[in-house]
């Protein structure tokens, strides 16, 4: 790593001030940023550690939504009775991110802000039609994920919490990259206040909604309804682990399994 | 340079570190606790796993400064002062769950966290899944899984000792 | 004293002595060492697969904080450092010696693979060294790269080394082509198969590391390194690279965190830190990170072959014809040339009575990391080829695959058995290992399991491999005649201390095998001393007289035999002392597990009585016998050893995703006498995991420009706990007939026998899809392609 100054503010306001420096970067669990820094792919002059900000913590029920603070670790979400009762698919998903140690450090805010195309959380956020709360505003999931590693967050804007509307049904299924164990293709499906949603992660350069599958599920909520719907491979990722065609095929398989998991 | 103060294996330490210093570097180079190893640079192998405030974490993917105020346990902190091994260490020896020994410290630390967080007990398949973050190139995992299964019984008080039945 | 429980000797699963330190974080691996005044090195490596170096500008880097020295290829050339030597010379068909281009420790004028070292930076801290390395400006002129066998041999391919025509290292053969061609011409049926043995990255969990230290007052150099064979490193580095007397160089390999072959070789970094420590006047430490390991540790395998069996009308093999191309990488690593020749083609008889064999092997330079021995080395390639071809043949001849193998086995009463490819097998019983494996794996019940799986939507398959390997390398005269530039004996010293405890000094080294326990068991068994009183010293050229190290499953067969020989000398001397003490004739003294007895009497002396007398020679035959009780023996094996056996794999394939799950694996191996069953099982299980990794998960991939695509554990699939099932291991023993222990070796059998068993199972699972062959690794994407692209009856 190149050296950097390390700051650990205790309020969002202080963090935002520190992040006004264009060469500063926010860090929480660090499980995406630190490997990149170790390979010297990135040269921030300062890291702003958000993990000391109390207002970013907590998992709570707010009306018909579960609100999860940005600092919630994957293991906390997986173990949360609140989440398990309201959105079991979200707890299931969190319980299958990376490995135990990643889940003990990685945070929902870090994962969603980073928007890795092979991450799990973006699928849940988009697939449930969640609302992202930031230090400045609220952003609908549909407006948040802009492209590979790109979100609607401004440089000095911090994701503070995510509000997940509680669905009637939701399910998640994924096929993992055999080496990295990141997602090769994953589908998060839900039916609820945000309508029927199917969000696909891992397969393309950014999480996306599968409109044909949403329409089919809206008409008939069953695994069979999506089984025949083919994803076009055109814009999907292709690498040594799987071609775009293979990923396209997996999209259908995972959507089918996600619906089955949703019950 | 900034300072970090943390408790390692029950002892308090204060050290001067760079912003970029990793927890594993603090442990190995400053505190000379070389039992915690570095086996990769992509957070895949788990040779560096230690406990931070009771959770297993990859110390190669944790900044030393982020552990300020934390309580850290490493492989060196497991055995009792009189040399009695932790049941997990004892099980690894009894079941031949290590060969070259390089992945072992991280494997043992992960295994202990896994067992502690699952008081209901783990099946063989659950143990295998729980070891996703730890690579071993020597054993094929077979004996590691057996050792953890035996250790969990002792750690949960279902069995009094690790020793295997006579073969 | 010296009461021995019988459980500690040969055949007992003694718990390992070394585990106490490993389990408490007190192992002593190279990177754990910190020498006083130590500096740190970073190696600047080529980002290009092939390029000319037009210039290297180190001015800015040299001015960086903490920098003590920066050295480039020009510096090491000017200093007269030699290149890394190759330890084996192969001659081509036409009698010409192999092409053996220079392998400089730092690239000079040209880089030939991504990761080729270009400069070493020595600084106060590792980060400072790396910071400075980034400030070095190298002016590269990229050249066309040839990372693949095909590219390197293409017409007009850019030569990777001057004077090496067509990038061919050698074009070697074994056997009589005319005789084999005639057998094919007269055959009832022939079966051919083209197959690839995928390139692998060894990935021992401990990355390589080296610390060099120069004492300017004595002129002595010390190298601490992650090596399987410190004496060999000392020999190669002192004589060939640094050009120093060996007596001025000490090499220490402390605890070594896995090797699997990759830590046999003499690597540039070892010589660089040793030399640089004298240049900067401080110890220099270098530790690879995993990314460096991927681009600098010798890789394994990487063959393309065409294999053909000729059969008579009864399904008996008449002949085997093989043509193989082997990727050597950009330079010749220490033992590279022997892997695709004498460790491969000589194994092509396998367990079968194939009367005539012809194999030709073309070794090719490419713009990739050098390739050398990786667990099994040549023998997995031979076994994979034979056992895949056997399955294809069984199907095409319409003969059951088990039956076809049985029909061609070398019978148990045919030993010693001379193969047509140089080796003479001493013992084996292939029908028995097959029968036992079929029984344990419940081969007969498979179809029911397949039907049950089908009901769950899974495709289930079963695969078998019956194999043999040659290890315990090796008779020096034989390997010398085949091109080895070293002897392959081993050295053992038994030092009986005055109080009767024992130190063993051995040239074998442990990188996970548990030698401190197994070797102590040998001593305990023979001399009657408790394991706790036997200490094993290895891995230090200053302590151990000499040694050739650990590889080729040789430590017990060769290193253990040297100890047995040294113990024979101890017993012989002890008998003379005992005879003196008991006033008997030497011929009348018997020895058994620590007790010297006058035959037919109850007059005895314990070993400790003898050792006390030997070191306190008050009542001692001093005129005819020297005091002391320490003996050294060199053991040079008479033959290779030939472990073999049967492996059976069972897989289930998810039809929708193509994912292959290995659900059952059974190994029944004949590894000769088993000293510690617990350790043998562990060795087999670990070897199987690596073989399964090759078959299902692992693949080292370069793109067409020579960039390493699978250059980290994010893209190179390492087997994890949930990729593997429990591995059932059993042994069926026939003794090796030519070493004193009857041992054969168990370190490599798992990696040799398992890959074809797994692929045969995958092909079997897809039996309804008209699949003849699947290349390794059988990834989900590959299997899906087959299922999806198939027009077989089950594809609808």
Architecture overview:
Chain A: Residues 1-169 form the FAD-binding PCMH-type domain. Chain A: Keywords: FAD, Flavoprotein, Oxidoreductase. The complex is a heterotrimer of chains A (263), B (167) and C (796). Chain A has helices at residues 12-18, 33-38, 74-79, 81-86, 88-94, 100-105, 108-114, 121-127, 141-144, 211-219, 223-227, 244-262; strands spanning 5-7, 24-27, 46-49, 59-62, 65-69, 131-134, 138-140, 145-147, 150-151, 159-165, 169-176, 183-192, 195-201, 208-209. Chain A has 12 helices and 14 strands. With 263 residues, chain A is α+β, with helices and mostly antiparallel strands. Helix content of chain A is 34%, strand content 25%. The model of chain A has no long low-confidence stretch (mean pLDDT 96). By secondary structure, chain B is of the alpha+beta class. Chain B folds into 2 domains: 3-77, Roll (Ubiquitin-like (UB roll)); 87-155, DNA polymerase, domain 1, CATH 1.10.150.120. Helices cover 30% and strands 14% of the residues of chain B. Chain B is built from 5 helices and 5 strands; from the N terminus they run ββαβββαααα. Chain B has helices at 23-30, 87-94, 104-116, 124-130, 142-155; strands at residues 3-8, 11-16, 49-52, 55-58, 71-73. In chain B, strands 2-1-5-3-4 form a 5-stranded mixed beta sheet, sandwiched between helices. In chain B, a hairpin with a 2-residue loop joins β3 (49-52) and β4. Chain C has 796 residues and is an alpha+beta fold. Chain C is built from 20 helices and 28 strands. In chain C, β20 (502-506), α15 and β21 form a beta-alpha-beta unit. In chain C, α15 (515-527) packs parallel to α16 (555-581) and α18 packs across α19. The radius of gyration of chain C is 28 Å and the shape is globular. Residues 791-796 of chain C have low confidence and may be disordered. The chains are: A alpha+beta (263), B alpha+beta (167), C alpha+beta (796). At the B-C interface, α2, α3, α4 and α5 of B face α1 and α18 of C.
Q: Work out the helix count of chain B.
A: 5
CATH class type of the largest domain in chain B = Alpha Beta
| H-E order of chain B | EEHEEEHHHH
CATH architecture of the largest domain in chain B: Roll
Radius of gyration of chain B: 16 Å
Pfam families (chain C): Ald_Xan_dh_C, MoCoBD_1, MoCoBD_2
Protein name (chain C): Xanthine dehydrogenase family protein molybdopterin-binding subunit
Domain Aldehyde oxidase/xanthine dehydrogenase a/b hammerhead (chain C): 24-144
Keywords (chain C): Molybdenum, Oxidoreductase
């Amino acid at each position: 790593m190149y050296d950097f100054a390390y700051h650990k503010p205790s309020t969002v306001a202080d963090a935002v001030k520190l992040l006004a420096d264009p060469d500063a970067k926010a860090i929480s669990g660090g499980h995406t940023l630190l490997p990149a820094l170790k390979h010297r792919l990135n040269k921030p002059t300062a890291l702003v550690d958000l993990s000391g900000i109390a207002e970013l913590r907590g998992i709570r029920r707010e009306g018909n939504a579960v609100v999860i603070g940005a600092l919630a670790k994957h293991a906390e979400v997986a173990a949360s009775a609140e989440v398990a009762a309201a959105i079991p698919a979200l707890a299931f998903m969190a319980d299958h991110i990376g490995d135990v140690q990643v889940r003990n450090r990685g945070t929902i805010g870090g994962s969603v802000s980073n928007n890795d195309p092979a991450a799990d959380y973006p699928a849940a956020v988009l697939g449930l039609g969640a609302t992202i709360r930031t230090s400045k505003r609220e952003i609908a999931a549909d407006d948040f994920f802009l492209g590979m590693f790109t979100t609607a967050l401004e440089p000095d804007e911090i994701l503070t919490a995510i509000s997940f509307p509680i669905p009637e049904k939701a399910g998640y299924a994924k096929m993992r990259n055999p080496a990295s164990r990141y997602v090769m293709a994953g589908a998060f499906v839900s039916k609820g206040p945000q309508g029927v949603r199917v969000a696909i992660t891992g397969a393309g350069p950014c999480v996306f909604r599968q409109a044909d599958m949403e329409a089919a599920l809206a008409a008939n909520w069953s695994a069979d309804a999506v089984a025949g719907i083919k994803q076009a491979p055109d814009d999907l990722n292709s690498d040594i682990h799987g071609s775009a065609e293979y990923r396209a095929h997996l999209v259908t398989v995972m959507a089918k399994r996600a619906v089955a998991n949703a019950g | 340079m900034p300072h970090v103060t943390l408790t390692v294996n029950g002892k308090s330490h204060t050290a001067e570190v760079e912003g970029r210093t990793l927890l594993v570097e603090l442990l190995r180079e400053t505190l000379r606790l070389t039992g915690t190893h570095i086996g990769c640079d992509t957070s895949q192998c788990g040779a560096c796993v230690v406990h931070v405030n009771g959770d297993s974490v990859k110390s190669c993917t944790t900044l030393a400064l982020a552990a300020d105020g934390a309580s850290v346990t490493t492989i060196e902190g497991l055995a009792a002062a009189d040399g009695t091994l932790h049941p997990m260490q004892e099980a690894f020896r009894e079941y031949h769950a290590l060969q070259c020994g390089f992945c072992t410290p991280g494997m043992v630390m992960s295994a202990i966290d896994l067992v502690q967080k699952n008081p209901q007990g783990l099946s063989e398949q659950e143990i295998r899944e729980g070891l996703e973050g730890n690579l071993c190139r020597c054993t094929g995992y077979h004996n590691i899984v057996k050792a953890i299964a035996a250790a969990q019984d002792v750690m949960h008080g279902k069995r009094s000792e690790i020793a295997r039945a006579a073969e | 004293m010296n009461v021995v429980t019988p459980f500690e000797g040969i055949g007992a699963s003694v718990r390992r002595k070394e585990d106490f330190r490993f389990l408490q974080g007190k192992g002593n691996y190279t990177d754990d060492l910190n020498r006083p005044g130590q500096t740190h090195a970073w190696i600047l490596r080529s980002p290009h697969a092939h390029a000319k170096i037009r210039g290297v500008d180190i001015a800015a880097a040299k001015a960086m904080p903490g920098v003590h020295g920066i050295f480039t290829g020009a510096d090491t050339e000017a200093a007269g450092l030699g290149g890394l030597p190759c330890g084996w010379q192969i001659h081509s068909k036409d009698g010409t010696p192999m092409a053996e281009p220079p392998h400089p420790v730092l690239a000079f004028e040209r880089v030939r693979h991504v990761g080729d070292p270009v400069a070493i930076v020595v600084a106060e801290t590792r980060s400072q060294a790396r910071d400075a390395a980034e400030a070095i400006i190298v002016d590269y002129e990229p050249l066309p790269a040839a990372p693949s066998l095909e590219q390197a041999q293409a017409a007009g391919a850019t030569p990777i080394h001057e004077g090496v025509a067509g990038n061919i290292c050698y074009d070697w053969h074994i056997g009589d082509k005319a005789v084999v061609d005639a057998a094919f011409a007269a055959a009832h049926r022939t079966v051919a198969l083209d197959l690839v043995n995928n390139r692998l990255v060894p990935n021992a969990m401990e990355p390589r590391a080296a610390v060099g230290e120069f004492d300017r007052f004595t002129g002595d150099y010390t190298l601490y390194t992650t090596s399987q064979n410190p004496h060999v490193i000392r020999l190669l580095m002192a004589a060939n690279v640094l050009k120093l007397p060996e007596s001025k160089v000490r090499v220490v390999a402390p605890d070594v965190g896995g090797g699997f072959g990759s830590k046999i070789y003499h690597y540039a970094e070892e010589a660089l830190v040793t030399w640089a420590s004298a240049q900067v006047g401080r110890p220099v430490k270098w530790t690879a990170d995993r990314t460096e390991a991927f681009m600098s540790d010798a890789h394994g395998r990487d063959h393309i072959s065409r294999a053909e069996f000729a059969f008579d009308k009864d399904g008996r093999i008449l002949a085997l014809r093989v043509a193989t191309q082997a990727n050597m990488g950009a330079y010749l690593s220490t033992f590279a040339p022997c892997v695709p020749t004498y460790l491969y083609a000589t194994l092509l008889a396998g367990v079968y009575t194939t009367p005539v064999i012809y194999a030709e092997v073309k070794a090719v330079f490419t713009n990739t990391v050098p390739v050398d021995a990786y667990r099994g080395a040549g023998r997995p390639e031979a076994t994979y080829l034979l056992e895949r071809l056997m399955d294809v043949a069984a199907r095409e001849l319409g003969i059951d695959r088990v039956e076809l193998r049985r029909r061609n086995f070398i019978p148990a009463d045919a030993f010693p058995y001379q193969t047509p490819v140089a080796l003479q097998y001493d013992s084996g019983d292939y029908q028995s290992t097959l029968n036992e494996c079929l029984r344990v794996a419940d081969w007969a019940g498979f179809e029911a399991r397949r039907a049950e799986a089908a009901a769950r939507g899974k495709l289930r398959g079963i695969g078998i491999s019956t194999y043999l390997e040659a290890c315990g390398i090796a008779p020096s005269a034989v390997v010398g005649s085949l091109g080895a530039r070293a002897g392959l004996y081993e050295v053992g010293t038994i030092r009986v201390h005055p109080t009767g405890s024992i130190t063993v000094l051995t040239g074998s080294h442990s990188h996970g095998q548990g030698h401190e326990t197994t070797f102590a068991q040998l001593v305990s068994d023979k001399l009657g001393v408790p394991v706790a009183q036997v200490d094993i010293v290895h891995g230090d050229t200053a302590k151990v007289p000499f040694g050739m190290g650990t590889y080729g499953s040789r430590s017990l067969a060769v290193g253990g035999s040297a100890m047995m020989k040294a113990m024979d000398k101890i017993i012989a001397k002890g008998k003379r002392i005992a005879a003196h003490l008991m006033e008997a004739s030497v011929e009348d003294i018997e020895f058994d597990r620590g007790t010297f007895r006058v035959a037919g009497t109850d007059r005895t002396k314990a070993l400790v009585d003898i050792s006390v007398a030997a070191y306190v020679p008050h009542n001692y035959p001093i005129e005819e016998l020297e005091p002391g009780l320490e003996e050294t023996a060199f053991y040079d094996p008479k033959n290779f050893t030939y472990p073999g056996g049967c492996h059976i794999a069972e897989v289930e394939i998810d039809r929708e995703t193509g994912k292959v799950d290995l659900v059952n694996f059974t190994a029944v191996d004949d590894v000769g006498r088993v000293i510690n069953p617990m350790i043998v099982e562990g060795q087999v299980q670990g070897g199987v995991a690596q073989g399964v990794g090759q078959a299902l998960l692992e693949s080292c991939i370069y793109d067409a420009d020579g960039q390493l695509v699978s250059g980290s554990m994010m893209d190179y699939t390492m087997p994890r706990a949930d990729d593997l099932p429990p591995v059932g291991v059993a042994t069926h023993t026939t003794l090796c007939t030519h070493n004193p222990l009857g041992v054969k070796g168990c370190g490599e059998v798992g990696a040799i026998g398992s890959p074809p068993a797994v692929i045969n199972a995958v092909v079997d699972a897809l039996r309804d899809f008209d699949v003849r062959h699947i290349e390794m690794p059988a990834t989900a994407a590959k299997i899906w392609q087959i299922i999806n692209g198939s027009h077989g009856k089950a594809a609808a």
